[in-house]
């Protein structure tokens, strides 16, 4: 997929990886704009193509009392405001067929969650909106299996598909990234590494997913060296009090240093 087809995606001439980053969930307008403003500042400085990420609702929760959102339309309007305010593309995940057309009115990229990437009707509904479709690799799927998800998008009349690896289940409470899968998936579509979700530790007895944010730079560095087209990271200015996935998010204050290091690695890789 040609990244130039994504509206308002800037800095494409820098030959950098592109970045999908933002909070796990849209908790309110002020927090979304605050995070977006900071990430836009950093990515423009480092010449990184940037897409703002935020979930308008959270359907996959461990417990019934977990945060699910502030209301679909309210959150989607915030995503649109972020896009218009900072002139950046936006991405959100969808969970039901009807979500596709609804979310497509507000965002530029529709993301299929890893647990749902085999749901044919959902993938087709996303593809038929004409928006770019980000297919998260199922934690239970091989890299080779993702060619079939990409084919569903293409058979629906769209060439706007990309794949995001978010790790593979290792036992019951850990994730691993098999970096051998990156070049394999790049044969099928533009490929992204979801750094923060790859460090989740699910199935905790508390019903709240854990994580290893201390390993974010390690996984991200390895992804850049392996040649991923893009990186995906969830970030928040107060991860400890984030309403979703705080245990594996990157504290926003560390983002610039991390990205600066990764850009240096990318430049070295490009020179080889």
Automatic annotation (TrEMBL):
Q: Name one GO molecular function term.
A: 3-deoxy-8-phosphooctulonate synthase activity
Chemical reaction(s) catalysed: D-arabinose 5-phosphate + phosphoenolpyruvate + H2O = 3-deoxy-alpha-D-manno-2-octulosonate-8-phosphate + phosphate
Protein name in UniProt: 3-deoxy-8-phosphooctulonate synthase
Instruction: Report the principal subcellular site.
Output: cytoplasm
Where does the record place it? Cytoplasm
Keyword annotations from UniProtKB, A to Z: Cytoplasm, Transferase
Q: Which GO terms describe its biological process?
A: lipopolysaccharide biosynthetic process
Which domain of life does the protein's organism represent? Bacteria
List the PANTHER family hit by this protein, alphabetically: PHOSPHO-2-DEHYDRO-3-DEOXYHEPTONATE ALDOLASE
Q: List, alphabetically, the Pfam families matched.
A: DAHP_synth_1
Q: Which family does it belong to?
A: Belongs to the KdsA family.
List its EC numbers: 2.5.1.55
* Chain ranges of the DAHP synthetase I/KDSA domain: 15-265
Q: In which pathway does it act?
A: Carbohydrate biosynthesis; 3-deoxy-D-manno-octulosonate biosynthesis; 3-deoxy-D-manno-octulosonate from D-ribulose 5-phosphate: step 2/3; Bacterial outer membrane biogenesis; lipopolysaccharide biosynthesis
Which species is this UniProt entry from? Aquimarina amphilecti
Name the GO cellular-component terms. Answer: cytoplasm
InterPro entries the record matches: Aldolase_TIM, DAHP1/KDSA, KDO8P_synthase
Among its keywords, does the record have Zinc? no
């Amino acid at each position: 997929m040609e990244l130039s087809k994504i509206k308002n995606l800037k800095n494409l001439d820098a030959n950098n990886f592109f970045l999908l980053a933002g909070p796990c969930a849209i908790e309110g307008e002020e927090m979304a704009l605050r995070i977006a403003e900071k990430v836009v500042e950093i990515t423009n400085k480092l010449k990184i193509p940037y897409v703002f990420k935020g979930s308008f609702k959270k359907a996959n929760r461990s417990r019934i009392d977990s945060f699910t959102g502030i209301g679909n339309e309210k959150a989607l309007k915030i995503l649109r405001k972020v896009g218009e305010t900072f002139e950046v593309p936006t991405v959100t995940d969808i969970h039901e067929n009807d979500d596709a057309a609804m979310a497509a009115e507000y965002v530029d990229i529709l993301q299929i969650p890893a647990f749902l990437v085999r749901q044919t009707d959902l993938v087709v509904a996303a593809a038929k909106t004409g928006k770019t479709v980000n297919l998260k690799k199922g934690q239970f799927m091989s890299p080779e299996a993702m060619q079939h998800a990409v084919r569903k998008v293409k058979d629906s009349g769209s060439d706007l598909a990309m794949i995001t690896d978010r790790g593979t289940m290792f036992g019951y409470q850990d994730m691993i990234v098999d970096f051998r899968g990156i070049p394999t998936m790049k044969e099928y579509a533009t490929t992204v590494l979801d750094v923060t979700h790859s460090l989740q530790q699910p199935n905790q007895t508390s019903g709240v997913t854990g994580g290893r944010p201390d390993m974010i730079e390690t996984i991200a560095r390895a992804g850049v060296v392996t040649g991923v087209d893009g990186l995906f990271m969830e970030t928040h200015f107060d991860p400890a009090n984030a309403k979703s996935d705080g245990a594996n998010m990157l504290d926003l204050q560390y983002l610039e240093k991390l990205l600066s290091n990764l850009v240096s690695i990318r430049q070295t890789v490009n020179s080889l």
